[in-house]
Amino acid sequence: MNANELDTEAAREALSRMMLEMQNTMNAIGDYSDTDDTDDEDTDNEPTKTPEAAPSVPTTAPVEASSTTTQPAEKKKKKKRKSKGSNKPNLEDYEKTDAVDAAEDPYDMSKSVAERVELAVTRFRKNRKFDTMRGQIFSVYLDYGGIKTGQKSFQGGGVATGGANDDGEPDFEAMNAGIDRVEEPNEGQTVDFENVATTFLSEFFLKSSGWIEAQYYTDTPLVVAALMKYFLVRNVLPEHEDDIKRALAVAEQAKDELPRIKTISKHLPGRFDKACSLIYGGEFYGILDAAPSWNGGGWGGVAKTTETFGMDLSFAVRLLNSLLAKGQELSDITVRPREYMEMEVVKVEPPSGTSTPLDNSISAGGDLDEIEARVETMVHQLFAADAHAADTTKAGEEGATNEGQSWPLPKLACVTFAEWDHEQSREGQLPVERRRKIKAYFERPAAEVMIPGMRASAYVYTMSNGVSYLEQACFYPTYYLEADRIEVEDWNSDDDRF
What we know:
two-stranded antiparallel sheet; elongated
């Protein structure tokens, strides 16, 4: 073999080695190019892989085209991202006493009350799940108690929008984001968690919040109780521990009583009140006239009006005869002028002829049909309080009836009230036996959930037989308390208070 042939053979071997090295290098690059850089926790501790060295053994075999083709490396599957806040406890978990960090037990006593409350509220908000309704309740409660909430709080940000990491689930951290600020109390102001919780869960909730959905009646006391429990577990304000415990007790009481109030309100006005109003006078007097002047001739005629209202005059007479007429005619009964009264429940008797006592448990149903429930709201809006003031009006003729309609007589419960002195606290009220009594009839589902001590207000019509019927009645929990008028004005003007 001459020199030229040796040079050609050496060049061929060198070229073959270069091609093999390039192939191995490309394979090594393919092994690492698709590593998921988002899973840092999984890759940080793994040893770094290095490509194997290319073989140095020379070969004279020609390089085939197929040997340079690389198979694409299998991509590593990305781990599913956990939704933010998925491990955060719900408010229902507030009764579980978690271990308290030493750094938080107690909160730094060198900080002021306002600073510690601000810190605790911020942590509570951040580490708890809030849906839209509970977030609204929480913000309103903080504002009512003097804790100002930033504009970002509970306004949007609840769902991730777009992006490679959007899992479409609620972003609880964004939902809970907010800026809570607590001002130091002004001169003359005191820290009173019990008063704030009591007035918020009674007067404010029932008269000012505008919350009418049933879920508000269960979630509102839950939110308050959860925050008070958090303050106690985290030992935020040890110097106010007794006050916070009393506030928690009120919230626990509200968890039972507010749903009862909602159930009662669904059955007001009752059929007894409506029947008396039709016959003796009140907000429903004249509603079944053939062509009442106030509505341009009725709601589609007498039959349609009767069906919508849920009773006719014939049914009203039968109902009152079954309850009131003890050896006398309905026309012999007279009615005193109506009067506004505040009262408290002192006795609830089961319907006559029934042996099952009322158990005061939450009732899940009722015998008022859907049409009657709708008309109750509609009629309240149409009639003024003094549409027909009853004085000594006697029951007149039965008038028009819908003979094709038949309603079974309900079994009603008798409830006794004692007059309530608005100027006095519960402790300042006269003994029950020395106060005026009012007896009225209610639907059984409403009476079942009434408990002694519940408050009520209504326009009261007292009949000559000693029984009364109510108009525009409202019920309140046993712990009902109205905020001081000065405090209400301060809250409405956005002044801070505790």
